[in-house]
Amino acid sequence: MAVTTLDAYFAAAPDWRGDVMRALHGLVLESAPGAASAIKWAQPVYSLGGPMIFIKFAGKHVTFGFWRGAALTDPDGLLEGDGVRMKHLKLRSAELPRAQLQAWIHEAVRLNAAHGDPTKK
User: Which of 25, 68, 76, 80 has the most CB atoms lying inside 10 A of its own CB?
Assistant: First the structure.
């Protein structure tokens, strides 16, 4: 059966990953007032003027990704991904770089406001 709620998705994650995803969820909602959250493409997605952030867990990490990640300010090269648009950060522990994540969330909101829905051509 497919997971249909964020709470169910977070509960399905073993060990520290569920807690990290709950913390990320709170950080997104705090940093992007008005953002909608839902399960889309089989993962939690946050939208404001179109999708901007996704979260998913894997074997040993949590992925925190951005639709416009390639356009985000990333002087330390922390974001990964080979695509021309999407980039992500792999979190491998419960320790969150909160200030950096919050800065990227704010920037993702501004980019969607300036450029519209990234899924529309």
Answer: 68
